[in-house]
Amino acid sequence: MTFDAIDAWWWPFLFILLAGWLATDAWRFLGVAFGGRIREDSEALVFVRAVATALVAAVIGNLFVFPSGALADTTAALRIGAAALGFVAYLAAGKRMLLGIVVGEAALIAGMAAGW
């Protein structure tokens, strides 16, 4: 079964829905089944957190190096500078994630508006 298997207007939506559900819900069910039995400081959970953090870092790094859309029109210095400014704001505000995100996005938007 492929994305182009059926020539109907609704097929791509159903395919994405099913593929997204199957790819994520199995892990959610396993998390619910085993989550209550795993200690928070266990090596397995530390490993899972490390892998999840690495995946998020990889996605963010990919956006810096190979941007698409409107980000492709910005310079690497602007993207990295906005992220650094957001990280500094996050640390300065006592590790408040929302503030770091807002400051980083505001810096990126301001730099794009200035034409950097």
From TrEMBL:
Pfam families linked: AzlD
Transmembrane segments: 12-34, 46-64, 76-93, 98-115
Coiled coil (residue ranges): none
Highest taxon of source: Bacteria
InterPro entries, A to Z: Brnchd-chn_aa_trnsp_AzlD
Keywords: Membrane, Transmembrane, Transmembrane helix
Descriptive protein name: Branched-chain amino acid transport
Organism expressing this protein natively: Kumtagia ephedrae
